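Supplementary material to the annual report.
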Amino acid sequence: MNVLEIRNLTKKFGDFIAVDNMNLSVSEGEIFGFLGANGAGKSTTINMISSLLRITKGEIQVLGRNIVKENKFSKMNIGIVPQDLAIYEEMTAYENVSFFAGLYGLRGSLLKERTEEALEFVGLGDKHKALPKSFSGGMKRRLNIACAIAHHPKLIIMDEPTVGIDPQSRNYILNSVKKLNQMGCSVIYTSHYMEEVEDLCTRIAIVDHGKIIAEGTKEQLKSIITDTKETWIGVKNAERLDLDALKRTTGVNSVRLEEQTVKIVSKGEINNLNWVIQQLIRDQVEISSVEEQAPNLETVFLTLTGRNLRD
Amino acid sequence: MNVLNIALFEIKKSLRDKRTLIFMLAFPIVLILILGTALTNAFHNGVAVGDMKLLVKNTAQSQQLQSYWNGFAQAIGKEGVELTPAANGIDGKEAVQNNQFTAYAEIDDNGVHFYGSSRQTISSNIIQGMLTSFADKYSLAAAAVKNDPEAAQAIIAGSMSAGSFVQEFSIDPDRKPGSIDYYAIAESTMIAFYACMSASWLIRGEVKRKTALRLVAAPIGKMEIFAGKVIASTIINFLCILAVVVFSKYAFNANWGQHLGFVFLLLFTEVLLAVSFGLGIAYLFKDDAVNAVMMIFVQVASMIGGAYFPVDEASGVFGAIANVSPLRWANEALMSLIYNDDLQAVFPVIGLNTAIAAAFLAFVAITMRKREAF
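Predicted assembly:
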């Protein structure tokens, strides 16, 4: 059964179409990656799923029920981990989780039990009485998650839950996502960190200009771009590089320079490595390494959208 | 149940906001103390009367008049009038003109001739009143003695007791508040209206804090959130006012009258008005403008409402502006209630506060429903 079903979803702000006739489904037990550059439409979609925004056209179903017609049911089954911290700094960790869980109808001993369980789950079991203002960025992010899971939702939407935190907290959160999934939760996960999505997600959708332009497993997505290949060339004097000349080289689709590495995406069927190297020699660029890259999600995203995920 | 949960959480949150709480409690108390002490004289109705010196030239031959005058002189002496017999050759009128005496009186068998000082008008008027009383009573006794000597004796005896010469009447018989009494009322109504400042953050704060997303995503209605917040804000602000009233009553002996129940009812409706007004302004203006609009309105309303100094009946444009200050309505109604026992003065203000609050709350509720999220 699909935990989330989106059909012909459209959202307009005046004349601007933020989400354009989107179709999407998330199966039970999936960790679904939702990728898109800033302004692609993923936050708007998430906001419609969480009822923050009204749907202009189309339909969203949670566990087979329309979220507009059966709003309370869908809300009861969704947990939101917003991109921005959504906690009360002046209330203790326990009070924060308990308040939000209380809004989902939990009362008395069950509320207490679930609140403690959620705090324990995110590693804040010993911080019940602490105020979030005394927390590190990572601890606040974890509290942000605890507030979303105490009511045991079937679907958890995590909108960039690891932004701006230390590697230790990041690992903790990623492991928590896996654990939640093992416990039976379906997760929609958005991130600017492609490696997180590759590591966590069983299926991924790439959104651009309000539309889903690709959807599938990692392997399926990578197979989309068999017609291109990526070559990374390490250089020592990058300042001599003529990027425009490289772009004009036969078979080259795109060229970008990241620190001391030139990343070149070329047409798969053309072997243009000799010409590329000749161009570099002409520019008197000193080559330190040459690597042919296996296709990855970053390449897929770049090829499909023409943008980096962090653009 | 959700409304109650939200209200309790909001109250707890407000109690943790020590800065706002201290402001709401300490600010009015400090103002009552400072303004009430500094402006004591502005509220004092009494007039200081200086020494009353009467220069007397008594040339009366009548035994009866002499005897009556001596008794009278003793009686007014006890009332603080210093009598000085005029020495031969002294010009009484000139002595008064030179401010050596408050008044000069010549007494002979034909009556009393009085000359008062134009510099000490009040003292002089008091002495004149006493002498008039003396002359009237003596004339009455002189007339009565022919038919009823006992009655004449009684008149004379009665007029010789101290303190019976001048009876005070006032064209403004109402009781008036002292400065502490006035500022206890004025600062309490002012701080009640300050509730609009925190109320403007009730929903805005959730949006800024990003917790609005969680609230909207939860299976509760917007109106439950709205109701919970309005209830909490009204309760917490009213509790602050209650504390200020009780403190001013027992610590400063401020007069809150005999109808405390109605005083609290009126203050409660003013807090409700302020909360709904704050919410309304937050929805009427863009985020950045809300604080400025609120601050300007509160300060102007406080000033023309009499929070910093008493505002008498004003006319023209200022009068029209002053009359739209909710603080002015509240202050005037409370003054009437406390000092005139006028219960009727309170009900129109309670009604007006409640009606305006209802209008603002309805506006906010409708706008909130129409809006996506908040």
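The radius of gyration of chain B is 32 Å.
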